[in-house]
């Protein structure tokens, strides 16, 4: 019987106290933990090693978390959880644009971070390591491509102009292509609305409609990729 290998996580934070605290909680869950105190050290370790997750502080000295995340996405698809300051909406947006998969806000509960870590690893545990190791600044599908560094969406050779939230929604679906999400899931993941209710579902429907219209204007097949899963929600299906 094959035993599952423990996941390897890199903690990137200039505060040793934070690294020690996270190491304590994550090692209790049997994760293998490595640390980096700044962006340069993190990039060096990421080049040399394969991790299943990188927990990355936004406010690093010198090379900040956004720059580190962009550098990671030029090398690998390793999931990145960004740690941001409370109320830093701009930092969250820039983090997603740079390729972050999720974020947690300081001050945070270590237990909350552990739960988020497990959720990301559960989503990505089936990914082939060779896929995780290829450059990820572009998501490419038959009719659609997304450049996550330039925040550019192309249908064939036509650039599609999206609002920020339309882009974030399309990017989230594309990054998790083939997975069906409820409207509640999308409100939480894209709008960061942890108390979403049915009265707000129309927000998701409206954004999906606009995305389809813009994609269809360039190529009908592209719009069809944003698929309605009846009774559930939406999925991007290449």
UniProtKB/TrEMBL annotation:
Source taxon at top rank: Bacteria
Main location: cytoplasm
Gene Ontology CC annotations of this record: cytosol; protein-DNA complex
Keywords: Activator, Cytoplasm, DNA-binding, Phosphoprotein, Transcription, Transcription regulation, Two-component regulatory system
Pfam family, one: Trans_reg_C
SUPFAM superfamilies assigned to the protein according to its UniProt record, in alphabetical order: C-terminal effector domain of the bipartite response regulators, CheY-like
Domain OmpR/PhoB-type: 136-238
InterPro entries listed in its UniProt record: CheY-like_superfamily, OmpR/PhoB-type_DNA-bd, Sig_transdc_resp-reg_C-effctor, Sig_transdc_resp-reg_receiver, WalR-like, WH-like_DNA-bd_sf
Gene Ontology process terms (BP): regulation of DNA-templated transcription
DNA-binding region: 136-238
Organism phylogeny: Bacteria, Bacillati, Bacillota, Bacilli, Bacillales
Domain Response regulatory, chain residue ranges per copy: 8-121
Protein name as catalogued: Two-component system response regulator ResD
Compartments where located: Cytoplasm
GO molecular function: phosphorelay response regulator activity; transcription cis-regulatory region binding
Record organism: Paenibacillus methanolicus
Positions of post-translational 4-aspartylphosphate modification: 57
